Amino acid sequence: MELINDRIAVVRVPPNETSKGGIVLPDSFKMAEIASGIVAVVGPGEVLPSGERAPMHTKVGDRVVFMPRAGMTIPVKDGLNYKVFGEGEAWAILDHGNEVPEESYDPPG
């Protein structure tokens, strides 16, 4: 898949069940209104008035947070969907260097 401008394709992953310190998080603590995923594909960047491209902040393997309704879902193959949206719709990069999952997380409900 080749993306246009500042688009990113993300494989959604389930919310963390434990904190980094190993504490099991209760369901009430998990933020259902925020989604996270691993960046699988990155576009070349927005075209600036000068004709050059703006650099992309996200890289393949970055774990990002975003609103669950951001962008659109595109089925890639059985069990794998990409959420495609503009880089500006990602709120933050949580960490780098993650392996891109072979299956996407589809939340219940």
Which series of helices and strands comes N to C? EEEEEE
Helix content: under 10%
CATH fold topology: 10 Kd Chaperonin, Protein Cpn10, Chain O
Reported CATH architecture: Roll
Domain unit count? 1
The number of distinct helices, counting runs of at least 4 residues, comes to: 0
Based on secondary structure, the structural category is mainly beta
- The first-to-last residue Cα distance is 28 Å
Beta percentage is 25-35%
Q: How large, in whole angstroms, is the Cα Rg?
A: 15 Å
Biggest sheet details = 6 strands, antiparallel
- Provide the CATH superfamily: GroES chaperonin
CATH class: Mainly Beta
What would your notes on this structure say?
With 109 residues, this protein is mainly beta. The chain has a single domain, classed as GroES chaperonin (10 Kd Chaperonin, Protein Cpn10, Chain O, Roll), CATH 2.30.33.40. 0% of the residues lie in helices and 35% in strands. It has a six-stranded antiparallel β-sheet, with no helix packed on it. A hairpin with a 2-residue loop joins strand 4 and strand 5. The model has no long low-confidence stretch (mean pLDDT 87).
